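dumping this here before i forget
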Amino acid sequence: MRFLLLAALLAVTTPAAAQAPITPHVGGRVVLAEAGGYRFGWPGVYFEGRFTGPSVEIAVEPGADILAVSIDGQARGEIRGGTARLTLGDLGPGEHVVRLDKLTESQSGEARFIGFQTGEGGRALPPKARPRGIEFVGDSHTVGYGVRSQSRDCTEQQVHDLTDTSQAFGPILARRLDADYRIVAFSGRGVVRNYDGLAPGEPLPALFPRVIPGLAEPRIEPSEVWKPDLVVVGLGTNDFSTPLHPGEAWADETALRADYRDAYVAFVQGLAARRPGARFLLISGDTFAEDVAEVADRTGALAVRITGMEQTACHGHPSVRDQRMMADRLEAAIAALP
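structure:
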C-alpha cells in the first residue's frame, strides 16, 4: 500500500563520516543546481543509486511534486513538500538499488534532487545504464494525467494528486523493454495549436528545448549527449479536440490541418537530425489519423493507430487499462520493425 512521507517527519540523521555519496543514474532532463544536486521539472524524471549496506539516505526538495521511493523495485512510499531527508534501513546484505520517481506534472516550478548516501557500513557502487533508450514526446496522455482517478470528475487538486507518470504507457513500455527513458510532455499542448486555443505560439515544439518546462531558460545544448534508440511522439489531440475560435491563426480546419502536417514534419525531421539512427513512432488517434499517416510517410516514421480507449480517468483521460493497452500497441509495433 502506498503511503505519504511528510517532510516534517523525515529529519533522520546519521554520522557524516559513516556515509558515502552515491553517484546517481539519471533518467530525464535535469540541470545541475548551484546548491548541489539536480534541478528538474519535466514529467517522469527518475534517479537511481546502487550500493551495498543495510541503509540508504535520500535527500530531495520536491517542491509541489509527489515523488515515489522504491528499494529493489519495491515501493516504499511517496514524498511531498519541504526538504525531505529520509533514511531507509534494515535492507539486508548484498547489492541494492534505490530509486526516486517524479509522479506529478509541474507545468511551473521545479524540484531539486540533492542526493543519495549510503548508511554506516555501506559502499557506493557505480551507476548502471540500460541497454537501450526511448524518448517520449507528447501531451497529457503521455504524462499520465489523472490516471489514478476512478472518476472523470476531478478538481484541479485531484488532477495533480492523481497524475502518475510511472503508470503512463511510456514508463510501462520502457520497463518491458529494459530501457531508460526520457519524457518531454506537457498537458494541453499540440503541434501548432493548444487545447481550446490557449497559449498561442507556445505549442509543444516551442517548449521542447526547455530544460525546465515552465522556464524559458536554460535550454538544451546542441551537443546534448543522450541519444535514444526509439522516439515515440503523440501529438494532435489538442490541435483538433476543440473548435477554432475567431481570431486564431487559421481561417478554417483545412488550414489548421495543413499547418499541423507541415509543422509536424519539420519537428520530426529536426528531432531526427539530432538523433541519428533512432526509429520514430507517431501515435495517431481517431480525429487525426490521416494527418499522422501523411507525416509518417513524409518523414519515414511509423504511424501507430491507437483507438478504443475507455477514457475513464480525470476529464476523460486514459485510464490505467488504457495506458497498458497503448503500451501493448507500441510494443507490438516495435517488435515488428524491420
